[in-house]
């Protein structure tokens, strides 16, 4: 084709350019063309907590707000410590296990690094 990279989400080869973005017509995923231009994938996303501290895999964080657990009557209370987090892509960018609740994903805007 035209030498454009395949879609990182679905793997489709039919990507096209739209200004500074690359677009996949099959799954409608959009991403920055400049991140793919750098060889070796150096355009890694930096995830920060609610006060601007950079988070890394294995960090311990504290929840700063009561969070309702979707599909359950459980609530993750303010001050709950979450150990050994894993960072992932998506809207909910922290993957973790919380005692008494189990595995779940959190948004980085609702946690503070300890």
From TrEMBL:
<protein>
    <submittedName>
        <fullName>Alkylphosphonate utilization protein</fullName>
    </submittedName>
</protein>
<comment type="similarity">
    <text>Belongs to the YjdM family.</text>
</comment>
<dbReference type="GO" id="GO:0016787">
    <property type="term" value="F:hydrolase activity"/>
</dbReference>
<dbReference type="InterPro" id="IPR004624">
    <property type="entry name" value="YjdM"/>
</dbReference>
<dbReference type="Pfam" id="PF08274">
    <property type="entry name" value="Zn_Ribbon_YjdM"/>
</dbReference>
<feature type="domain" description="Protein YjdM C-terminal">
    <location>
        <begin position="47"/>
        <end position="114"/>
    </location>
</feature>
<dbReference type="Pfam" id="PF03831">
    <property type="entry name" value="YjdM"/>
</dbReference>
<feature type="domain" description="Protein YjdM N-terminal">
    <location>
        <begin position="4"/>
        <end position="32"/>
    </location>
</feature>
<keyword id="KW-0378">Hydrolase</keyword>
<dbReference type="InterPro" id="IPR013987">
    <property type="entry name" value="YjdM_N"/>
</dbReference>
<dbReference type="InterPro" id="IPR013988">
    <property type="entry name" value="YjdM_C"/>
</dbReference>
């Amino acid at each position: 084709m035209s030498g454009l990279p395949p879609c990182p989400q679905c793997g489709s080869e039919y990507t096209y350019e739209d200004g500074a973005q690359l677009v996949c017509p099959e799954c409608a995923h959009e991403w920055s063309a400049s991140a793919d231009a750098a060889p070796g994938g150096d355009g890694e996303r930096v995830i920060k907590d609610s006060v601007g501290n950079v988070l890394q895999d294995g960090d311990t964080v504290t929840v700063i707000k009561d969070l309702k657990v979707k599909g359950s009557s459980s609530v993750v209370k303010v001050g709950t410590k979450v150990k050994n987090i894993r960072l992932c892509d998506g809207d909910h960018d922290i993957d973790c296990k919380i005692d008494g609740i189990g595995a779940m994903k959190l948004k980085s805007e609702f946690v503070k690094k300890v």
